[in-house]
Backbone:
């Protein structure tokens, strides 16, 4: 059975939510790393645009992981397995924008904003 891989779309939604929540970081970007396998798994989230502020990067990564788990993803790095990058894909259609809006409303509750 063919499974749709929504990871790029969902990483794009999460990046949008994080940019709204961390408006003081105009260069904030994220992408995910995933192991080859089922499309409901993420190995690691990479956070860019926070310079050398390690604590802030960890807090943002933690928020991203919480949101991925909310969407039903298992986030777990498996040592020794190859990974590939999952780049954020912004919504294109009106339907995708509405889905993202619903997610962002839920994300505000998750992130406590």
Residues:
């Amino acid at each position: 059975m063919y499974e749709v891989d929504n990871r790029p779309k969902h990483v794009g939604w999460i990046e949008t939510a994080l940019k709204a929540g961390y408006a003081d970081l105009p260069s904030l970007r994220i992408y995910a790393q995933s192991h080859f396998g089922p499309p409901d798994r993420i190995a690691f989230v990479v956070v860019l645009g926070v310079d050398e502020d390690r604590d802030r990067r960890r807090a943002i990564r933690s928020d991203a992981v919480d949101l991925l788990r909310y969407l039903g993803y298992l986030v777990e790095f498996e040592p020794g397995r190859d990974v590939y990058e999952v780049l954020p894909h912004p919504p294109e259609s009106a339907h995708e924008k509405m889905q993202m809006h619903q997610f962002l409303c839920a994300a505000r509750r998750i992130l406590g904003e």
